Amino acid sequence: MKRKHVLGTAILALLAIPTAIAVEPGPDLKSRLQKRTFKDAQGDSLPYRIHVPTQYDKSRKYPLILFLHGAGGRGDDNQAQLNNAQVLRFISDEVAAQQPCIFVAPQCPKGALWSPRRPDLTASEGEPTKPEMLVLELLDALEKEFSVDPARRYVTGLSMGGFGSFDLCLRRPDYFAAAVPVCGGAVPANAKKMASVAFWIMHGADDKVIPPDLSRKMVEALQEAKAEVKYTEYPGVGHDSWVKAYQEPELVDWLFAHRSRPENP
């Protein structure tokens, strides 16, 4: 794979650029997600949307998918996080008929990030951001409320949410069975710490906002760490690779086929 020189400081500035074109995957899918707000013990809140299978049965265990939006979805309206709605394919009638799941989409506040700033992308993970801490607490709360399959918890995100997806796998590698970071990146030195998670990493080859080299380096690092990793790079695609990513024919089957490794809870 070709390598490009990456200026980490420029990357973090670019993370604040709103994500691009929103394309609806089908009618009325957003309305299937209930609006809620999670509050922690300190009173800090996190808006989120959640879809629970129509025929929810508490005696059955359901997969859980966490979706982290990009920078353009930040705010407090509990709507903008679904602007890039291609990801809602996971709650479409076609998918739900075969594999109903619990789908969760929190909303990061304006000016905040899902994962800590790392200007040179070589620093250690550091402390989680407040939104990230709230996401972790939200997941714990949902585990108590709903019947979640502990072997089939997944995370995906785009752009800023791609970085967040990697970071959550770093902090809770035993929690997630598989992850789909789209046009994101992480610190390659931390790959061993998240090697128990299966990854399908995707990026646009012509992405000028988040350089594809960030994904390429993570793929190499995860391969060296003996992780299961799949990489798809889209020629001629810029910073909207999620449009193609969430339409991948094998994505649904690939994701739901993964279960946490035996040593994981």
Multimer state: single chain
Overall shape: globular
The portion of residues assigned to helices is 10-25%
Q: Which structural category do the helix and sheet elements fall into? A: alpha/beta
Which homologous superfamily in CATH is the superfamily? Alpha/Beta hydrolase fold, catalytic domain
Strand content: 15-25%
Unreliable sequence segments: 1-27
What's the order of the H and E elements?
A: HEEEHEHEHEEHEHH
Query: Largest sheet at a glance?
Result: 8 strands, mixed
In CATH, the architecture is 3-Layer(aba) Sandwich
Mean pLDDT: 88
Provide the gyration radius in Å: 17 Å
CATH class type: Alpha Beta
Keywords:
265 residues; Rossmann fold; 7 helices; 8 strands; disordered N terminus
